[in-house]
Design brief:
single chain; alpha+beta; two-stranded antiparallel ribbon; elongated; six-stranded antiparallel beta sheet; disordered N terminus; SH3 type barrels
Amino acid sequence: MTRKKCFFIVFLVVLFFSCKNDKTGDSERTVKVLPVDTLTRMVVALDHLLLRVAPGTDQATVAELEQGTELETTGSISPIKTSQLIRGVQREEPWVEVKAPDGTQGWIFGGGVKMEGAQNTPVASVIRKERLSSFFGSEKTRQILQYRTDFYSVENPRDVENVFIRGTILRDSLVQTIGNKIGILNHDNLPDLSWIEDAMPGFTLGMVAEGTRYYLFQDCRKMTVWAQETTAKEDDAFFEFITFVNAGQDLEDFYPLWFEQTWDYGGYSLLGEGKHLSVLTRMEKLMEVQQLFRNPILKLKMKLLQDILNSPTGEYGESAEKIIEEIDVILAADFKILSKAEKNSLELRKKHFLDPAKFGLKLNLKPTNS
């Protein structure tokens, strides 16, 4: 089947999805969306998922499928949708005709399975779009699917830069919806959210706020591999820098290597240990040799300066002497990445560390080795 025909078929399937209620009287209206040689592979994500003779929760049960059972689609999706709360997540999805390992054939609720890998078959594409739309809404789904397409279509570092920036902005708009709609009820029985990671390549879901909320983190490992697909090196250098800022960790951190996190919501600055200087040095080199990724780099620079000039906690691990010494070295380096006004602010900030109590600063918080 040609790609043009494949996309046309998917378009026709989407047009059929007008029925929003679980009406079993329409169970015979099914749509063939792909030939037998392009089947979608699925895995049961729940215990005791019911395989039924037709779409709908009131249809007779053919079998009970255990979690982890591998299935293949037959190529049919029902226009009937059902809304169910599954492990704290409201899922409104169509029914899919599948074949079990023993050859038993029937219909399962789409929200009870996950797709194996980032498949792009017509069935997978339809389910992906329906799943995202019911959760994020149609406009965000359009943006997500465009990001996903562009992520897998980059040809050069400029493409990588554009997709990275757009993806980060999009992520920031999605995390609130994720936090509002997904309740973590039981850490031993968490919902399957692989479909969100599938839709947002380059990101990984993790827990924050003492395990009470989900957050979509940039995954440096995934993005480094992604950047290596282009022949140029500018994008590779940028993600090496981002990994360095994250202290070598794969996932981005709310607190970069210049800050010591001591609990979920805070800690103290490591100013005085040379980490701020090392980051600025790498920033300077990147900005000298390439014009790409300037905005993300400058955004990180502002975050670093914020830590020096107006730390949100006002707490620092080192002594005034070591802190002032590092600021002096930064000023002596005469970084082009720092404006004259920023350098003047650093000069002024040194005076604050000479009288920390007056300016509400706490120093020497780093534990001493016994």
